[in-house]
Specification:
Elements (H helix, E strand, L loop, with lengths): L1 H8 L15 H31 L6 H23 L6 H31 L3 H76 L6 H25 L8 E3 L1 H7 L1 H8 L6 E3 L7 E3 L1 H18 L6 E8 L1 H4 L10 E8 L6 H6 L17 H11 L3 E7 L3 E9 L13 H4 L9
Parallel strand pairs: 2-4
Antiparallel strand pairs: 1-3, 4-5, 5-7, 6-7
């Protein structure tokens, strides 16, 4: 075996390859330069492949790059031996290198054919672009769906807040109505007995003045109770078909006096305003309350605007608190200090006020709210701090035919025939 190996490596009987080229310099150096450049390229290619695979460990089938690197490196070595054997007949070593190169090329070729189906299964750049475009579209759809979901959640939260506020107002109204009703009955007894005592006293009695003072205080308390009953929607109303524009016009001078302003309020009254069926006295009281509130909100002066408008059923349906029927909108706007969100959320609550002690009962807006609800409508606030406040009354349109005019006795017209307390 050693003899065979020694015979294989023996080069004493061999001649260098340059003899075949007759040692012609142009041929010798052409072979040398060409083989050297090829070998240099073959050695740099595996180095580049090795750096690429080492730094990009996420590359699929990285082992195939190493197989190509080994094959190319072996090819470069054979070209170096071609230069070597021009002068040294070391053909045995060259044969070994070529055999190794053949083995590396065979293994690489087999692995490449095995890998080919898997490589073809990889997505092409165009497929990747299409997949990326589809992914971007789906992300956009998801973002749009999330935005729509956020809007739905916001609307649901708003509706839940409105429901909680409505439930709170209903509970406060029920409690206020019960207390006011019972207190109203007690006041009726007190006023009745005070009135009876006053009639039995002589005109010159010193106690008459005390009884009158007590009676005046009880009547002021009764007026306060009426406001509480209005908020609780338990106040007896006498609704009639009326033209809100005409009522506001007739009330103009009184509103001007309530505002205590150098200029009268601006009346922006819609022509052909639909009629409503409400208690005229209570509507006047509501407008006066709102005028007083507007005056208090503008201590430095300002402008108050009273506006009326028709609200068709289609537009009313967009307001959650309204039924899908025609409404008449009566709004009172001022240019005063306005309210923040927290104050606006509690403005309709009874006894809630931002005024100082002794400057208000906190029942003005609650009476407005109760009157609107008891009349089948709704009241809402639109206010911004430092930009004024708008109070809107939504009153259902009266679609019934007007009743024939019947003469009404003067006492009944003035409300004297009605019971003094509920």
């Amino acid at each position: 075996m050693f003899d065979t190996l020694a015979s294989f490596l023996d080069r004493t009987s061999l001649s260098p390859h340059g003899i075949c080229l007759l040692w012609r310099p142009e041929l010798i150096w052409t072979h040398v330069v060409s083989d050297f450049v090829i070998a240099l390229a073959y050695f740099t290619i595996p180095a580049a492949l090795g750096v690429f695979v080492t730094r990009r460990r996420d590359v699929v089938f990285g082992w195939m790059f190493w197989a190509f690197a080994l094959f190319i490196f072996a090819c470069g070595t054979t070209h170096l031996f071609s230069i070597w054997t021009l002068w040294v007949p070391d053909y045995a070593a060259e044969a070994v290198v070529k055999a190794l190169t053949a083995l590396a090329s065979l293994v690489t070729a087999v692995l490449l054919w095995v890998l080919l189906p898997k490589a073809l299964a990889l997505p092409s750049p165009e497929q990747l672009r299409q997949a990326n475009a589809e992914l971007v579209a789906r992300v956009g759809e998801r973002d749009a769906a999330l935005a729509a979901l956020r809007e739905v959640i916001a609307e649901r939260d708003k509706a839940e807040d409105m429901l909680r506020q409505t439930q709170k107002m209903e509970a406060i109204g029920a409690l206020t109505g019960g207390v006011a009703h019972d207190f109203n009955n007690l006041l009726g007894i007190v006023i009745g007995n005070l009135d009876r005592i006053e009639r039995t006293l002589p005109d010159v009695s010193p106690a008459r003045r005390s009884v009158r003072n007590a009676l005046a205080g009880a009547e002021r308390a009764a007026a306060l109770v009426q406001k509480m009953l209005a908020f609780a929607r338990r106040q007896p109303l006498q609704p009639i078909r009326l033209d809100a524009n005409r009522l506001i016009g007739d009330l103009g001078e009184l509103l001007h006096g309530a505002l205590n302003a150098p200029v009268p309020p601006v009346l922006d009254l819609a022509p052909d305003l639909w009629p409503v069926r409400v208690d005229a006295n209570q509507l006047e009281s509501v407008l006066l309350n709102l005028a007083v509130n507007a005056r208090d909100a503008m201590p430095g002066g300002g402008r108050t605007t009273i506006r009326t408008d028709n609200l068709p059923a289609a537009q009313a349906a967009a307001i959650p608190a309204l039924s899908a029927i025609d409404h008449v909108v009566v709004s009172v706007a001022d240019t005063g200090c306005g309210m923040d969100a927290e104050t606006m959320a509690r403005a309709f609550e009874p006894f809630f006020t931002t005024k100082g002690v002794g400057q208000g009962t906190g029942l003005g807006l609650s009476q407005v709210f109760g009157f609107a609800k008891q009349s089948g409508g709704h009241a809402e606030l639109d206010s911004r701090l430092g930009h004024g406040t708008i109070v809107r009354l939504y009153l259902p349109r009266d679609v019934a035919e007007p009743a024939p005019v019947v003469a009404t006795p003067i006492p009944e017209l003035l409300g004297l025939a009605a019971p003094r307390f509920a």
